[in-house]
Amino acid sequence: MKTRLLIVHPEPSTLALLSSMLMSMGHEIDEAANDRMAVRLMERGGVDLMIAGVDPSDIEALELLAYMRRKHRQIPVILMFPDSNPERTKEALRLGALAVLKFPVPATELRAAVTQALGPVVAAQAAAAAAAAAALPKPTTQSSSAPPSTHSPHQNHTPAPAPHLRAEQLAIDWGIVGNDPSLRQAIELAASMASMRSPVLIVGEPGTGKSLLAQTLHSMGSRGDKAFVNFDCTARSEAWSEHEAIDPNSGSANGQSDREWRSQLAQAQGGTLFLDEVSALPDDLRLQLLRSLQDREFESMNSNHNGQPDVRFLMSTSENLSGLVEQGKFRQDLYHRISVICLKLPPLRHRGTDIEQLAEYFRARFAQEFNKNVVGFTRDALDCLNKHDWPGNVRELEGVIQRGVVLCQGSRITSGHLSPGLGNPRVSRPSSMSSRPQLSSSIRPLKEALEEPEKRIIIQALQALNWNRQETARVLDINRTTLYKKMKKYGLLVDGPIWVN
Ligand SMILES: Nc1ncnc2c1ncn2[C@@H]1O[C@H](COP(=O)(O)OP(=O)(O)OP(=O)(O)O)[C@@H](O)[C@H]1O
C-alpha cells in the first residue's frame, strides 16, 4: 500500500532534497512551490501527509495549516521552520500541526517524524483492506446511536452496526483499530472528555488497549503537548515488596512514598499521570492518591489554586475493583473518587470482526518493519485466529502476527506460521474453570509446555482458596506480585466480565 506525501517549499533545491530524503522510504511524492499549488494538489485528493516549510515570521505562515484543518482535518501536517520561534511553534501545535521541525533537519529525524505521522494512516489502510477482504455486507446508513449488536467470533460476520468508514476514521485519528460497538463507545466517550480535568478509570482485561486509550485520551486533549507520565503500579509494588524483604523496618513512615509521589506529580505537572493497574498501588501510595484527589475537589469547590500541582489522573485496572472493595482489599473512599468516569474496553474474543482487522493491521505493520513481502493470510490461518480465545487480548494477537510475519517465507501467513495450539478449542474463562486443560502430546518448547501445568496449578489453588490471592500466594510459596503477573499472563485476573455493558 503506497502512501502519498505532499511537500511544500518555495525553494526548488530544498524541494528536491526533501523529496530524495523521503522517496527512499517508498512513498509517492508530490511537490508544491507555494500554497496555491498545494491547495490544488490537495483538492485532487489522495494525499496522506503534508510537509510544509514556512517562514514563521511571515504573517501568513500558518494559513496553509489553517486551510488543512478546515478542509482536510484527518490529514496530518508537519511544519518546518528555518529559525526557532517558540511562539509560532506553540500556535502551530495549537492549530493542529502534528510536529514542528527545525530546518535543515537530519534525514533520520525527518523520516522518524514521517513514520510516526503515517502510523495511523497505515492502520487505516489496513483496516479498510481487512474490511474489504472480509467481504462484509455494505454499510447501511444506520446511526451510531443504534443499539449495539453482540458480536461473537463464531458468528459468521454479523453486519457491523456502523459503517466501516468509522473504523477507518478512528484509526486515522488515533491509531486505534477496531469497529466493535463497545470499543467505539469507549473511544467516543474518551474524546468527549479529553480536555476535562476529572480522573478517568479505564477498565478491561490485560492487553485490551487500556494504555493505548490512556495515551490517546491525553494526546487528544488540551494537555496533549505536556508530559504523559506512565506509573507502572505493579512494577512499583514488586520493587517495594523486595525492598521490604531486605529491610522489614522500612515503609511509609520514612517519608519515601511521600517523596516519590511528589516527584511523580512534579514530572507530570501540567500534563497527565497514568496509574497503570491502580489496584496494585501499594497502600501508602493509595493514600497519597486519595489526598491528591481530595485536594483537587477542595480546590475546585473554592475555585482557588492552593499550590497543588496541576495534574490529571488517568488510571487503568484489569481487576474488578468493586469486588475488591467488597472484600475489604481496596479503599471504598478511593474507589468512589476514581470510578466516577469509567471507560470499559471489551475483550478481544467479544469483538467479532475486529480480530481480522487487527490481524491485518499488525501484518501490514510488521511486514513493513521487517521489510517482507507478506501480503495476507490463508483461510486456515484466519480460521485459527477467529477460533482462538485470546486470553492475552490484542497484545497476544500482536505477538502472534509478529511471529507469523517473521516465519512466513511466502506471501501469505498460514496456520503453520501461527503459534502452536492456536485455534485449538477455546479454553474456558475463569468463571467456568472447573475442568482441567488437556496437556498436548506434541513436543513443544519446554517453557511453553510448562505453562499449561503451571496455569492448572494456579487455577486449582485459587479455586480451593476462594480466589483469595494473598492465601494462594502463600500456599504456592510465591510473592503476591508474582502471582498477580502469572494470573495476568493466563487471563485469570477478572472475577466476572465487568467491562461488558
Ligand atoms: N485497538 C487497537 N488498535 C491497535 N493496536 C492496539 C489496539 N489495542 C491494543 N493495541 C496494541 O496492543 C498492545 C497492548 O495494548 P495496551 O498495552 O494498551 O493494553 P493494556 O490493556 O494496557 O495491557 P495491560 O493491562 O497488560 O497493561 C499494544 O502494543 C497496543 O498498541
Automatic annotation (TrEMBL):
The UniProt record lists the keyword Cytoplasm: no
Source superkingdom: Bacteria
Gene Ontology terms, MF aspect: ATP binding; sequence-specific DNA binding
Domain Sigma-54 factor interaction positions: 176-406
Compositionally biased residues, Low complexity: 137-153, 425-443
Signal peptide: none
Occurrences of domain Response regulatory (ranges): 4-118
UniProt keywords, alphabetically: ATP-binding, DNA-binding, Nucleotide-binding, Transcription, Transcription regulation
Protein name as it appears in the record: Response regulator with CheY-like receiver, AAA-type ATPase, and DNA-binding domains
